[in-house]
Amino acid sequence: MHITILHNHDHGVREDDPGREAREDVVRVAAALAEALSHDGVVAEPLAVVGLQFDFVAALQRRRPALVVNLCESVNADSRGEMLIPCLLDLLGLAYTGSGAVALGLALHKDRAKELLRARGIATPEFVVVEAIEGLAGVDLPFPLIVKPVREDASVGISFDSVVHDRAGLARAVAAVLETFKQPALVERYIAGRELYVPLLGNRPRGNLPLTEIAFGAAFVGKPHVVSYRAKWEPESAEYKDSPVVACELDPTTRGRVVELACAAFAALQCRDYGRVDMRLSAAGEPYVIEVNPNCDLSPDAGFANAARAAGMDYRALASRLVEIALERAHER
Fold first, then answer.
1. Cα–Cα dist 268/125, whole Å
2. Are 157 and 149 in contact, with CB atoms under 8 Å apart?
3. Alpha carbon distance 213, 227 (integer Å)
4. Who contacts 258 (Cβ-Cβ below 8 Å, separation ≥6)?
5. What is the 3-state secondary structure (H, E, C) of the chain?
6. Which residues lie across from 245 on neighbouring strands?
7. Of 95, 127, 215, 249, which residue is most buried, by most CB within 10 angstroms?
8. Is the peptide bond before 144 cis (omega within 30 degrees of 0)?
9. How does pLDDT run across 191-247, given as a tens digit for each residue?
10. Residues 6+ apart with CB under 8 A from 323
């Protein structure tokens, strides 16, 4: 069986790319998956989507792989291009792993995703989208607040300064997003409490891997407990070293509520196959969905693979299971 691992290769497109490390990591993930899948008659080959060159389409038409493992998170260093790839794969009639264009588009446009979640009665913090500095007057939410780019993921644009406690801090944080990322700012109520991750795997049935959470250490004393871009992508930083992902211990009732809420959010955005739902558990024990991550990071040392490992599934077994799930869904359709 031939498998193509499709990934973006655009971390050098922009000199000022604020998400360079996240985009560069995808190349490493593609190589790891190719190695994990290439055994027992399976040939898995990476194929890069470079800038605005679309010759990968012709390559896919020549190869006609049994499955495409879709790792594309951007096109030409623009995250909005992520939803373009499943559209092309659908038009080519190729089966692929992970969520379709609708789910990826909704998850990337955080405000639309949150509107849908709230319409379904799924708890997520109140928010406002600010498209220009003049729009700050329309923000009527209680402090503290957190400010982030509305169309990014992987902690891009998140730092300690993203959590604000007054109007002056809000203005600075919103201005930084508008100027750096050239997109609106999402301003939402900051939920102080534990940050939980719910990894989901499968479709019918859909299950969860062991829950994890962030253990905020010394670098976060007196600081907001947020997974910043440095904490996620800069291994030499104190924020990275002091924010390990650990097993999440919850009482059975709370755990059941957290998993149920995560599954409802995943289904609301029409996600499929695999992904992760990021949640906050308030001091009062109330869970809130912060973000839904379809097609989450599949690197061997990332949270999803570690959760699978805790469930007794090594990286090769996880890669094979993702292929099985996608093929089962494609053949059912």
1. 16
2. yes
3. 11
4. 196, 198, 211, 250, 279, 281, 287
5. CEEEEEEECCCCCCCCCCCHHHHHHHHHHHHHHHHHHCCCCCEEEEEEECCCCCHHHHHHHHHCCCEEEECCCCECCEHHHHHHHHHHHHHHCCCECCCCHHHHHHHHCHHHHHHHHHHCCCCCCCEEEECCHHHHHHCCCCCCEEEEECCCCCCCCCCHHHEECCHHHHHHHHHHHHHHHCCCEEEEECCCEEEEEEEEEECCCEEECCCEEECCCHHHCCCCCCCCHHHHHCCCCHHHHCCCEEECCCCHHHHHHHHHHHHHHHHHCCCCCEEEEEEEEECCCCEEEEEEEECCCCCCCCHHHHHHHHCCCCHHHHHHHHHHHHHHHHHHC
6. 214
7. 127
8. yes
9. 999 999 999 999 999 999 999 999 999 999 999 999 999 999 899 999 999 999 999
10. 3, 37, 67, 69, 97
Residue 70 near residue 5 (C-beta atoms within 8 A)? no
Q: What is the pTM of this model?
A: 0.93
- HSE of 210, CA atoms in CB hemisphere, 13 A: 17
Two tokens, residue 169: 């801090």
Would you place residue 39 in the very low, low, confident or very high pLDDT band (cuts 50, 70, 90)?
very high
What are the backbone dihedrals phi and psi of residue 14, each rounded to the nearest 5 degrees, phi first?
A: -115, 130
CB 224 within 8 A of CB 250: no
Other beta carbons less than 10 A from residue 118's beta carbon: 16
Q: Which residues pair with 193 in a beta bridge?
A: 282
Q: Among residues 327, 295, 302, which one has the least CA distance to residue 101?
A: 295
- The sheet that has 185-189: what strands, in order across it? 127-130, 185-189, 145-149, 163-164
Longest dimension (CA), the chain: 61
